Amino acid sequence: MMTTERANVGGVDSHKDTIHVAVINDIGRHLGDREFPTTVPGYRRAVAWLIEHGPLQAVGVEGTSSYGVGITTALRTAGIIVVEVNRTRPAERRARGKTDRLDAYRAARSVLSGEATTDPKNSSIEPLRALTVARRSAVKAQQAAWRQIGSLLVNAPGDLRDRYRNHSEAQLVDAIAHVRPDRMNDTAAADTMFALRSLARRHLALGEEISSLEARMRARATATNPALMAIKGVGPVIGAQLLITAGDNPDRLRSSASFAALCGTAPIPVSSGRTDRYRLSRGGDRQANAALHHIVKVRMSYDPATRDYRDRHLEKGWTISAVFRALKRAIAREIFQALTGHCVVPDYSDLRPARRAKNLTLTAAAQHLGVWPSRIGELELGRRPNDDLAHRYREWLTAA
Question: What is the pTM of this model?
Fold first, then answer.
């Protein structure tokens, strides 16, 4: 890309079917604007049109991760710097109006003034977003099927309710999925069981779909950032969400504080007069905030250090909500270090070969370490990192 002191600045207002492109010079003078279709040839013509006006300093694009992903990719391929621009604020919209042309020029002015400085997310994160969307949809459908099974059983004949009354969810779904309604003498009960069987089989099919989606999410998230996936409490779903929020280009994240604000975990000052206090941010990406909350809940269950922190601060008079807020802020710092590549990825690849070399079984290792065999298998595969357990496992393998 050619750049000079007097390079122009472009702006793009993106929509589903069209994009509106504008260009201004280094002092903000309008040089022209034009609309293009959101097709591959349309993106090429838009890039060529921008270059026709002279050297470009940068191009501001609205919606770089939604409708603007196509033009963003085309601009980057041409070697042009792209800057992410926020949507028009309501106050500015009321004062100056809103059209595609005005929004395109506003995007260019935002870049020229330095108001917009954020790099867009790389398009390589989009497959992970697609897997996340598909899984979320499958989970909602599975939950709906389970609720419908319960509601149908409530109104089912008494003998059917009594037959499945004490079953767990997995036992109930499996049992209903294998019933034979065609062999029932009561046609009314047979139709009810046919509907229940349909819902149960749907529930099982969705469970298999969710498992396959999570396996692909784990593989892609691990390949993208193994350090993130090695953090305690981060699984494929949580890791995928954090990568989607932050993007897989860590240069977008300026500091740990900015990432905490992005996740809605940064404290905001609300002081006035003699009052000096902070409140929790209610902005940011709420899905990322929920991911951090889930990490805290997982660590509360099995991480001794997290439980000790909770107990110490509860004794000091903290509320459990305050403890969660502090832990989420601390975990945000840990996640930031992993996203920016400033932490070491634990290596457990030596555990399985060492165990097999001594002809030891997973069951024997699990009995000695006081955990389930599946936990040892997950540790050997790096799916559930635990440095303390890995250290004790290595010591036992050395002594065995």
Answer: 0.79
